[in-house]
Amino acid sequence: MTRYIAFRLLQAVGVLWAAYTVSFLVLYALPGDPASLLAGPDATDVSPEQLDAIRAQYGLDRPLIVQYFDQLLHLLRGDLGTSISSGRPVTDIIGEAIGPTAQIAATGLALALVFGAGLAIAATYTRHRALGQFLLALPPLGVAIPAFWFALLLLQWFSFAIPIFPAMGDKGPTSIVLPALTLALPTGATIAQLLSKSLVTTLREPYIDTAWAKGAGRVRIHFAHALRNAALPALTMAGLLIGQLLAGTVVTETVFSRPGIGRVTASAVGAQDIPVVQGVVVFAAVVFVLANLLVDLIYPLLDPRIRVGRSPLTPRGITPKTELTGARP
Amino acid sequence: MSYRNYGRRNAALGAALVVALSLSACAGAPASTKATTAAPVDGGDLTFAIANDPISLNPAGIGSGNDTLYVTRQLVDSLLYQNPQTGELEPWLAQSYTANDDATASTFVLRDDVTFSDGTPLTANDVKATFDDIIAAGALSQAVTLFVGYSETKVIDEHTVEVDFSTPNAAFPNSVSSVALGIVAPSTLAVPFADRATGASVVGTGPFTLDSYTKDTSTVLAKRDDYAWSPASRENQGAAHLDSVTFQVVPEASVRTGSLTSDQVDVIGGVQPIDVDTLTASGLPIVSRGNPGVSFGVYFNVARPLVADIAVREALSYATDATEIRDTSLNDLFNVGTSILTETTPSYSDESANFTFDATKAASLLDAAGWKKGSDGIREKGGERLSLVVAWISNFGPNQTSLEVLQQQYKDVGVELTLEGGDVPKFLELQKSGAFDISWQNLSRADGDVLRTTFSTASSNYFHLDDPTLEALLQKQLATGDPDARSAVLAEAQKRIASQYYQIPVHELTSVIGTQNSVTGVELGADSRLDSLVDAAKGAQ
After folding, report:
1. Are B216 and A264 within 8 A, CB to CB?
2. ipTM for the whole complex
3. Is residue B1 part of a domain?
4. Is residue B10 part of a domain?
5. How far apart are CA B195 and CA B462, in angstroms?
6. Please, what's the b/e burial string for B414-426 (b: 16 or more CB within 10 A of its CB; e: otherwise)?
């Protein structure tokens, strides 16, 4: 178990380092130089000497490899550098943005879980074939709807036409509803898609027949027998869903005029504020890695086959069985 | 039949109601007339939706353009005020100014009753310190480019300063009216330039002070009770009517419009041309003003062989139907361009005689220059196609539509346009590389010196004009202290640019603001950015 955790942690650090390095290379390969971007397109009278002074001030005049290792050292100390456009520490900018984003992301995730799982259960539980088919057709639609369009539609209906929710800001619980719904739509649809598919498969398993034969009721079979096993693949996806939620905040926070990670990302990318963009990449990677680490750590608790010494580090030949639907009671 | 009767009855009832309402309106008329002439209501919070986070509330720093300046204009005052109606410079923090004939020295005599919001009185030292600080900040300050040829600021006495230049800078008196040259207190300057972005240290003499700034959300300003030095041409000479102003960041233009029509905000900035009709249909007032500076249009990079030939440039001028472009991508709040400078720029002169749409003339000029139509309809000469690369920037939404119309117009006379660029970094790279024949751009600045920064070979020189006549005019305007003489030089420069077809004006960028009916006194300044909100009020009583 300890070796399993140690391996996962090591893997997490590796992922973080890779994310940082790739983003560094990509950002520096972009066209444009941060100094002229800082001066802006209207700065027609800025001399090359003045631009050189900016480059020197931000250390942009040093060789790329020196900049890379210098920033990596700072990163190890928890210092993400200084924003080029505002001169403020990147950790402060991201720190302020976490709260508002967490509010809508957590609410969005909760809504997605409730509605996504609810839809999947309802679609597989109903005896009405047509209704079941209809419900199963909804998740692909939810995944396909562009978040931007959906957000504007929500605003048009529930803020401009019928003033129930505020169109902007992060004051009060009412300001969370529409952004959270926007975030919940694709995530909830993904959950519903995964869970309904895996429920359908699980319900065809022989052990379900055994349960029937033992005289278990429909409710018991659906919830106690099938759902527990069917939920495991959905849990595997949880890490990815967190990533989806974070990505969704860019559009959601822009349309709903909320502060947060998404807005920081959008404006930093637009201004090519490289330290901030890298800070966001590192932050997103940390969240992603933590979410997956958490899933990896919860997994053994739910699935005994992964527990007790059968870590991925065990010698070849004793590969743990990860086929999940094959479980027998 | 009964249905129709019912309808008629309703119509009659409606007519009766209208009469009754208009009668009651007549009865109430004296009261309502009185209301409009009465003083604006004091108090209240004005919510003003802007598109971008200000990023830096340091008036001399680099923020996010207009939206930043909307906010910082309220915090600091300038030495002079440029009257948006007349274009004239009027006293503000300086009660008078003089410039010498060769524009190398400007002297400002300050008011002696002005204090910063921290209570310290405004003195000549503060003006010197503010200007020197901008020079020290270099390219980190948006204002540094206004100090071309700066040598020093001399404190003559407690309330007199002289700003000296080693080379003439006739644009300087206009420049001091800009927000970027707003005077800040010694306590502000004690904080390093790069650390002033949050505005916490920014202390000015403006009608409002900073209450709070929350990145990506809002900037709240509070009224300063003892403010008493508005420019004389502003209505309100005392403290602002409003208690506070909240600049709320709302990035999406359609959301700003919806927030205004659903009464969630009082004023919105950055109204897109497409949203103007929505606001007008809702009966909401529009405040708009053409931006001073150089107009949106076709700028030729004459270092490129195809457009180095004036015949080609002239032909393209005849091929450009500016009115059609304006009508397709914008609306009639936007003027069709008539000169390199826009109408609201001081020293503007009308050069529209050079720019008429005549596709037949365009075709015959190209024929005469040896460009014959090839099999695909595009003209060729000596095996080379008349295909031009256009550098463009997407920071103004309708640009793409404008260019697509232009593309079609030029195709009609056998000239192909390829659009390149898009976002700001790409455009800047393209500009620097020089790999374009035409640039589609503009630049807002409330002084004719914008011609020099745009076209002088000694400046950014993106268009590589090799024209000693024009260059001499561009340098001469900067060295002419007398405003009328300077305008004459600038008029000559505009004529030169028009007659050589270095630029084909298409339209003038226009700033549009939407407000609630109850809001008064929200105006655009001479730079077509938000003026001081000292006159603004939420209704009259």
Report:
1. yes
2. 0.82
3. no
4. no
5. 33
6. bbbbebebbebbb
Which two structure tokens, joined as six digits, stand for B487? 């305008």
Position B229: which residue type? W
Q: How many domains does chain B have?
A: 2
pLDDT confidence of residue B26 = 37
Quick one: which H or E segment has residue A2? helix A2-29
Chain A residues near residue B215 by CB distance under 8 angstroms = 86, 93, 96, 259
Are residues B463 and B319 both part of a single domain?
A: yes
Query: Is the same domain home to B87 and B235?
Result: yes
> What is the pLDDT confidence band of residue B541, given thresholds at 50, 70 and 90?
low
Name chain A contacts of B424, Cβ cutoff 8 Å: 32, 37, 40-41, 270
Of A36, A87, A159, the CB nearest to B428: A36
Distance from CA of B270 to the nearest CA of A (A): 15
B174: amino acid identity, one letter: N
Q: Is residue A1 part of a domain?
A: no
Q: Which residue of A has its CA nearest to B146?
A: A45
In 3-state terms, what secondary structure has residue B256? Answer: helix
Mean pLDDT, residues B166-195 taken together: 94
Domain span at residue B62? 45-290+511-538
Polymer length in residues for chain B: 541
Residue A169 to residue B198, Cβ atoms within 8 A: no
Residue-wise pLDDT tens digits, A258-294? 999 999 998 888 777 888 998 999 899 888 888 888 8
- A317 in a structural domain: yes
Question: Does B150 contact chain A (CB < 8 Å)?
Answer: no
With respect to residue B24, please indicate whether it lies within any of the assigned structural domains. no
Is A40–B250 a contact, with Cβ atoms under 8 angstroms apart? no
* CATH code of the domain covering residue B153: 3.40.190.10
Q: What is the mean pLDDT of chain A?
A: 83
Residue B191 touches chain A, beta carbons under 8 Å: no
Chain A, chain B: beta-carbon pairs less than 8 Å apart: 145
pLDDT tens-digit series, residues A26-56: 887 776 677 777 776 666 667 777 778 778 8
Does residue B460 share a domain with residue B320? yes
Residues B129 and B232 in one domain: yes
B51 and B113 assigned to the same domain = yes
Residues B280 and B218 in one domain: yes
Residue B279 at interface with chain A, using a CB cutoff of 8 Å: no
Which residue among B139, B142, B259 sits closest to A54, beta carbon to beta carbon? B139
Amino acid letter, residue B120: T
Partners of B49 on chain A (C-beta within 8 Å) are: 168
pTM comes to 0.85
Split at pLDDT 50, 70, 90, the class of A318 is very low
In a domain, B5, yes or no: no
Closest CA to A50 of B142, B475, B165: B142
Separation CA B230–CA B236 (nearest Å) = 7
Q: Find chain B residues with C-beta within 8 A of A84's C-beta.
A: none
Question: Domain for residue A289, yes or no?
Answer: yes
Tell me the residue type at B478.
L
Examine the domain organization and report whether B310 and B440 are in the same domain.
yes
Q: Which of B283-297, B456-470, B516-530 has the lowest mean pLDDT?
A: B456-470
B145 with A44: Cβ contact below 8 A: yes
